[in-house]
């Protein structure tokens, strides 16, 4: 491969999981990329000690969207400053390929790749509605990979193999997993607590990922209810937890959604209502239109929802999910990038 590869982006687990898939795939092929992320968000947590990267840079950047005018100006000024920093890195390490997985962390390296004519830019857009940065920069990209774009060369989402390996067709609901995405979701936590006694009476086991911020509160409530629940804030072994469940109630962040699909786990998605352009709703709608999931707006999430789920035909949904996503997405995406690099 000519020149160095940069993988950039992050902020939250959804973007970082895809960044990690790229790092792992390049490493498998004997290529050590550089990672460029931010000091804000979860980037350092995921990549500070990652041995598969040649070097990781964490730049002083913050999100631009959802800020007042002064906040926006400061964030933009900081990005401009860090673009320069990236151009220096590109120059010193002969960067020829920049792969953005989106999020504000990706801004400096993405803009630097556009300014440096020696680089090719690739974008992986995880969501059904394009993020602001990708909307601005995508016209400069050599390829945009997305599960929702008709003209994407590879449409399958890069999901780790363990989600496929542990997949099975679900027949009846004996265990439900509640998932809040990388940061947890208070609305899903409250819903789980409101139906926990009923599920227990029905003999249904609960697995519950709360997110860090709400863990103690949720754990104490289960203790008060005297229920034996597998409750945790975050785990590195989420595929194992998913595979134990027969049904999921989850946010529809892109990585989680496609992991659940890969695992053939029927799901009720409760989209995060404040996501940009309501993208979590449209992520889930993509599967709902194929009758492969249920979707419930957060405002309609009432205990009665459980009765409907218990009557549903989860077997045909679970079977249908098998064909919704193919196995080797990250290999195919990296093949396209390497082929282009050789031209
Ligand atoms: C509030 C918000 O705007 N969230 C966005 C964010 O979500 P968020 O960061 O929550 O992302 P996702 O749901 O896409 O991914 C979370 C990742 O964390 C992993 N995980 C989660 C819990 C756990 O205990 N262990 C674990 O490993 C999941 O398996 C998954 O791979 O990025 C996604 C991808 O751009 C978007 O679709 C979401 O809308």
From TrEMBL:
Family per record: Belongs to the glycosyltransferase 28 family. MurG subfamily.
PANTHER family: GLYCOSYLTRANSFERASE (PTHR21015:SF22), UDP-N-ACETYLGLUCOSAMINE--N-ACETYLMURAMYL-(PENTAPEPTIDE) PYROPHOSPHORYL-UNDECAPRENOL N-ACETYLGLUCOSAMINE TRANSFERASE 1 (PTHR21015)
Cellular component terms per the entry's GO annotation: plasma membrane
Family matches, as Gene3D superfamilies: Glycogen Phosphorylase B
Ranges for domain Glycosyltransferase family 28 N-terminal: 5-145
Database matches in InterPro entries: GlcNAc_MurG (IPR006009), Glyco_trans_28_C (IPR007235), GlycoTrans_28_N (IPR004276)
Gene Ontology MF annotations: undecaprenyldiphospho-muramoylpentapeptide beta-N-acetylglucosaminyltransferase activity
One annotated GO biological process: cell wall organization
Keywords: Cell cycle, Cell division, Cell membrane, Cell shape, Cell wall biogenesis/degradation, Glycosyltransferase, Membrane, Peptidoglycan synthesis, Transferase
Function, in words: Cell wall formation. Catalyzes the transfer of a GlcNAc subunit on undecaprenyl-pyrophosphoryl-MurNAc-pentapeptide (lipid intermediate I) to form undecaprenyl-pyrophosphoryl-MurNAc-(pentapeptide)GlcNAc (lipid intermediate II).
HAMAP family, per database record: MurG
Protein name from the UniProt record: UDP-N-acetylglucosamine--N-acetylmuramyl-(pentapeptide) pyrophosphoryl-undecaprenol N-acetylglucosamine transferase
Reaction(s) this enzyme catalyzes, per UniProt: di-trans,octa-cis-undecaprenyl diphospho-N-acetyl-alpha-D-muramoyl-L-alanyl-D-glutamyl-meso-2,6-diaminopimeloyl-D-alanyl-D-alanine + UDP-N-acetyl-alpha-D-glucosamine = di-trans,octa-cis-undecaprenyl diphospho-[N-acetyl-alpha-D-glucosaminyl-(1->4)]-N-acetyl-alpha-D-muramoyl-L-alanyl-D-glutamyl-meso-2,6-diaminopimeloyl-D-alanyl-D-alanine + UDP + H(+)
């Amino acid at each position: 491969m000519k020149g160095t590869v940069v993988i950039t982006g992050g902020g939250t687990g959804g973007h970082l999981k895809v960044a990690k898939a790229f790092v792992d795939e390049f490493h498998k092929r004997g290529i050590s990329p550089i990672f460029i992320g931010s000091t804000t968000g979860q980037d350092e947590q995921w990549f500070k000690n990652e041995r598969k990267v040649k070097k990781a840079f964490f730049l002083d950047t913050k999100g631009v969207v959802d800020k007042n005018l002064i906040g926006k100006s400061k964030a933009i000024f900081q990005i401009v400053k860090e673009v320069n920093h990236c151009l220096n890195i590109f120059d010193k390490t002969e960067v020829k390929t920049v792969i953005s997985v989106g999020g504000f962390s990706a801004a400096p390296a993405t803009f630097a790749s556009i300014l440096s004519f020696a680089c090719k830019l690739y974008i992986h857009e995880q969501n059904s509605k394009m993020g602001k940065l990708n909307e601005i920069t995508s016209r400069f990209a050599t390829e945009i990979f997305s599960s929702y774009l008709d003209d994407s060369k590879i449409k399958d989402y890069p999901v780790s193999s363990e989600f496929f390996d542990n997949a099975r067709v679900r027949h009846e609901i004996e265990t439900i997993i509640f998932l809040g995405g990388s940061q947890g979701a208070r609305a899903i936590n409250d819903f789980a607590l409101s139906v926990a006694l009923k599920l227990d009476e029905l003999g249904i086991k609960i697995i519950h990922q709360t997110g860090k911020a709400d863990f103690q509160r949720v754990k104490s409530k289960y203790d008060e209810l005297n229920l034996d629940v597998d409750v945790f804030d975050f785990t590195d072994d989420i595929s194992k937890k998913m595979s134990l469940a027969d049904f999921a109630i989850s946010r529809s962040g892109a990585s989680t959604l496609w992991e659940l699909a890969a695992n053939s786990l029927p799901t009720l998605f409760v989209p995060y209502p404040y996501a940009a352009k309501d993208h979590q709703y449209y992520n889930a709608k993509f599967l709902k239109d194929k009758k492969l999931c249920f979707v419930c707006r957060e405002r309609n999430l009432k205990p009665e929802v459980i009765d409907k789920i218990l009557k549903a035909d989860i077997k045909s949904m679970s079977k249908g999910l098998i064909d919704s996503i193919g196995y080797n997405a990250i290999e195919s995406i990296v093949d396209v990038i390497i082929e282009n690099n050789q031209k």
